[in-house]
Give the backbone structure.
Amino acid sequence: MAPVGGTAVQDHVALAEIELCGELIIAASAARGRLSLECIDEVLRVTEERRTETGR
């Protein structure tokens, strides 16, 4: 049972992971076959993260 008083804690990392998993599930359900590694990276924004880290 949750404590009374609205003491909900938000874990921003967990929420971001859940959002990315949801996007991956949507992409997989819309695909005709298996998702390529490139498509998975695009959905998970891996290339965007790499560009941000390298400053490109």
In short: The mean pLDDT is 82.
